[in-house]
Amino acid sequence: VKHINVRIPDEEAERFDEISSFCRESGYNLSQIVRLLVKRWYQNQSGRH
Q1: Which of 4, 13, 33, 37 could form a disulfide with 8 if both were Cys (CB 3.0 to 4.6 A apart)?
Q2: pTM for the full model?
Q3: According to the model, what pLDDT value does residue 4 have?
Q4: Helical spans, DSSP H, in the chain
Q5: Under 8 Å CB-to-CB from 33, ≥6 apart: which residues?
Q6: Cα-based angle 36, 44, 39 (whole degrees, multiple of 5)
Q7: Cα 13 from Cα 15, distance rounded (Å)
Q8: If DSSP codes are grouped into helix, strand and coil, which group holds residue 25?
Q9: Cβ distance 19 to 33 under 8 Å?
């Protein structure tokens, strides 16, 4: 099995670390986070019109 090394920009990696540590601390699971992000994105989209 080849190991695929995906290079994540440091900025993105830091942001992901922040989000994942926040998830652990707050006890959120990933689906709740995704739902929250989708809701926020949707509100931003509808707010522009």
Answers
A1: 13
A2: 0.37
A3: 66
A4: 10-26, 30-48
A5: 19, 23
A6: 20
A7: 5
A8: helix
A9: yes
How far is it between the farthest Cα atoms of the chain? 49
Q: Give 8's contacts (C-beta < 8 A, 6+ positions apart).
A: 16
Q: If DSSP codes are grouped into helix, strand and coil, which group holds residue 2?
A: coil
Question: How far is residue 29's CA from residue 27's CA, in Å, rounded to a whole number?
Answer: 6
Residue length, the chain? 49
pLDDT by residue, tens only, the chain of 49 residues: 666 666 767 887 788 888 778 777 777 677 788 888 899 988 888 876 5
Q: What is the dihedral of CA 14, 18, 19, 20, to 10 degrees?
A: 100
